[in-house]
From TrEMBL:
Pfam families: Molydop_binding. Residues 252-274 are annotated as: Disordered. Residues 130-245 form the Molybdopterin dinucleotide-binding domain. Keywords: Oxidoreductase. InterPro entries: Asp_de-COase-like_dom_sf (IPR009010), MoPterin_dinucl-bd_dom (IPR006657), Prok_molybdopt-oxidoreductase (IPR050123). Gene3D superfamilies: 2.40.40.20. The lineage of its organism: Bacteria, Bacillati, Actinomycetota, Actinomycetes, Kitasatosporales. It comes from Streptomyces spongiicola. The keyword Transmembrane helix does not apply. It comes from the Bacteria. This is Molybdopterin dinucleotide-binding domain-containing protein.
Length: 274
């Protein structure tokens, strides 16, 4: 990681990674020599650096942080006690770190309390026919692995998770059309009993139609963002709302010229021998 940082900084692949460690140590000790009561208080950074013990940059950083910590330990002391050091019973610190004007934990800050009325209005409103949520995929990692042949297929497919009861109620077959206030998509149906009735789920990171990535473009999937409205934001954080979008779901024929329900063939990785 240090070498990559140096390459990104324009110093080339031959730069010494230890330079990054020394930079981090310098910043750490630069702050440490100014902390009242610190074991390095009033020292020059080079003087404090000379006191550290360790065979690598990470060990030196660990030693510095232990020395600057509340117990004044060192890496050498930890090595002398491989089974641990008893630092005594835990001590309460809540009053020390709690920054509210009242000195109490605010279980209902005014900002949240003001939202209760709006929440009650939302709960009292008629429920939408269906709501759409996103999902992550273990073998997908956003869109990063969609162009790797050995990772296509299996659970790494763009399908609509929907409860079997909803499949029967809506008369769905292999594909469904999902319509929201901002767009509509046709996607393969995958009934799963792990999802709540009335809720459907699309994975994010798909929509590779027209991509220059050969494997990804063969199994493009659909872009779930087409169904979300980026003008609808959370009142407190300002984040766009990407979950719980109202949608309707209806049967749809498979898109012409595609077989999205079939699992893609895997291409085996080359065997490397010593």
């Amino acid at each position: 990681m240090a070498r990559l940082c140096l390459i990104a900084a324009g110093q080339g692949a031959d730069a010494d990674p230890a330079a990054v460690d020394e930079t981090v140590l310098g910043e750490l000790l630069g702050a440490g020599v100014q902390i009242p009561g610190s074991p390095f208080e009033g020292m020059e950074v080079a003087e404090a650096r000379a006191l550290l013990d360790g065979d690598s940059g990470p060990e030196l950083m660990l030693d510095a942080m232990l020395r600057l910590g509340p117990y004044g330990l060192s890496l050498a002391e930890l090595r002398e006690h491989p089974h641990g050091i008893d630092l005594g019973p835990l001590e309460p610190r809540l009053k020390e770190v709690l920054g509210t004007e009242s000195g109490l934990v605010r279980l209902a800050p005014a900002e949240l309390g003001g939202e209760i009325g709006r929440l009650n209005e939302r709960l009292a409103a008629p429920a939408p026919p269906m709501v759409l949520i996103g999902r992550r995929q273990l073998r997908s990692n956003n869109s990063w692995l969609h162009n790797i042949p050995s990772l296509t297929g299996g659970s790494n497919r763009c399908t609509l998770h929907i409860h079997p009861d909803d499949v029967a109620r809506l008369g769905l077959d292999t594909h469904a059309r999902i319509v929201s206030a901002t767009g509509d998509l046709v996607v393969p149906v995958e009934p799963v009993d792990r999802i709540m009735p009335g809720v459907v789920s699309l994975p994010h990171g798909w929509g590779h139609a027209g991509s220059a990535q050969r494997t990804a473009s063969l199994h493009p999937g659909v872009n779930a963002n087409a169904l979300t409205d980026d003008s609808v934001t959370d009142a407190l954080s300002g984040n766009a709302v990407f979950n719980g979008a109202p949608v309707t779901v209806a049967p749809a024929p498979a898109p012409a010229g595609t077989d999205e329900t079939a699992a893609p063939q895997r291409v085996p990785l080359p065997v490397v021998t010593a």
